[in-house]
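fwd from M.: "can u put these together and see what the complex looks like"

so here's what she sent:
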Amino acid sequence: MRSLTKFTVVVVALSGVWTSAVADGRYSQSPHGSSMTGVLRSSDYPRGSCAQCHKGHDGGNAYPFGLFQENSNRLCFSQSMGGCHADRPAGATSGYPAQESDRMPLGSSDPGYFEFNSGGVRVPGPHNLVRWPGQIIWENTAFSSHYSDPDMPLKDALGFGSCDNCHDVHGGSALHDMLDTTYSGIVGSQTGFTTDNYLLCFTCHSVNGPVGMDESSRYIADYYDRSVNPGTRTGHGLSHGGSFVPSGARLPCYDCHNPHGSEGYNGQGSNDYLLSDQRPGWYGLTNIKEDNIQVRRFCFGCHPSSDRQGGGTVEGINPRPLPSEIPDHSFNGARHCYDCHGRDYSGPSANNVHNPSEGED
Ligand code: HEC
Ligand code: HEC
Ligand code: HEC
Ligand code: HEC
Ligand code: HEC
Ligand code: HEC
């Protein structure tokens, strides 16, 4: 109780700088703030209470904001009590990687979004996370650019890309995953020129992105924008609707990427470009732009070949087999998909997987 009182003093002292998450109730409704399933690092304080992280200045600790640990990514990996967000199985996410069956169903708040759920209601608790891969994957500097790239705008106390670049530890304004900017399912993206539902990524992956970011990373928003690139293929466009997918929608980033990194399907080797690892064949993709075998392992994760091998359900639909008049559309075809559909990131209207061309030779 004594430290709680001291903490109140800390909060009052800082209330001028603090955002409105508590005032508008976001914290208490966030996964961290829940009194049933929220943060439980120490049994000294009630579950979900502020003191789980802000223990005040008792015990001689004087970290900024009275935090129990320095404000680095590692704070999220605290091993005490529940293990919080460290590694499987002790830390979290025994449900990783997400499967098609983890998508929120039709009629739910956000059909198609990945969230371990029961009949369209999110099942809380760190053990039920399906998209957070754990500390070891996040801290793999070779394949985790949001952690290791020096151009990440917010750095943690150790100089690495901070979770705060995308999340708000006190409950973000976005619908899901304590994200601080909108990132939601495919429904809604069929209208408008830009796709506001992927705004989280476009705050950085657009021409207004952070200082120092590679040119090629800045045009992604344009590849999704039909005022820049008119046509049905913009944003890996879907022209045949069904299930979660309205015709004209653009494929969500999370169907191909995991912003936290990967370990490869079944742990068979991490992927470059933050490609996710939920489908067979999605492992060891270290040279996808040039290697014909790698690109096929990736594309055939969703598209069945013209000779009907591979393929998989995505957003509740089964893409049609590739047209057979192109010999390279067969499973073992000789030419790289990008030779005809594009691998160019040199400008806002270039053709690549985010804005594939019709198939020019
Ligand atoms: C899961 C851990 C955690 C919990 C629980 C938590 N905080 Fe924080 N808090 C942080 C971290 C980490 C920071 C450091 C700044 C940041 O990352 O936003 C912080 C910063 C702050 C600050 C400093 C100013 C600011 O705007 O960031 C205040 C004030 C604050 N928290 C108040 C609270 C209150 C009030 C509660 C309970 C309603 C609470 N916190 C619950 C982790 C937590
Ligand atoms: C570049 C943006 C970004 C950064 C940085 C980031 N995340 Fe995430 N995180 C996301 C997105 C986007 C999701 C939503 C899941 C998805 O992609 O489907 C998410 C989801 C999560 C989830 C919920 C997963 C689930 O299955 O419900 C956890 C837990 C999480 N992140 C933890 C972290 C931690 C801890 C850090 C820092 C060590 C971090 N994230 C850094 C973007 C980010
Ligand atoms: C706060 C800024 C920020 C946000 C938000 C952000 N990114 Fe990034 N992202 C970066 C930076 C910086 C890099 C490093 C590459 C560079 O400097 O060009 C990067 C790199 C990438 C890469 C390339 C990785 C590689 O190895 O080359 C992918 C893919 C990516 N981001 C996807 C996403 C997705 C998907 C989202 C949304 C869930 C997202 N990013 C949100 C800043 C951001
Ligand atoms: C259909 C799968 C797919 C979707 C959907 C997708 N990407 Fe990608 N993305 C890739 C692949 C594959 C690469 C690796 C480069 C390549 O093969 O052209 C990549 C590369 C990138 C890069 C690095 C580009 C570079 O060379 O610097 C960024 C940044 C990126 N994606 C962001 C996003 C964002 C943001 C979204 C959602 C708005 C998204 N991607 C949606 C497959 C996808
Ligand atoms: C996550 C699943 C997924 C992955 C991975 C994927 N695609 Fe797609 N792609 C789709 C879906 C779904 C459509 C829409 C199909 C439709 O509307 O019938 C599509 C559409 C396309 C189109 C446009 C079709 C048209 O309407 O003209 C092209 C071209 C394409 N994909 C090429 C590729 C290539 C090349 C790769 C590998 C680099 C790839 N895709 C990887 C799911 C995926
Ligand atoms: C030699 C050039 C070439 C190569 C290599 C190639 N394609 Fe195509 N692709 C085309 C052409 C041309 C079309 C349009 C055919 C049509 O409309 O009937 C097409 C159409 C498609 C479509 C749209 C299908 C639809 O239902 O409308 C997809 C998806 C696709 N290709 C994916 C791929 C993938 C994945 C690879 C690699 C495994 C690949 N392509 C390799 C030339 C190529």
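replying to her w this: Residues 1-18 have pLDDT under 50 and may be disordered.
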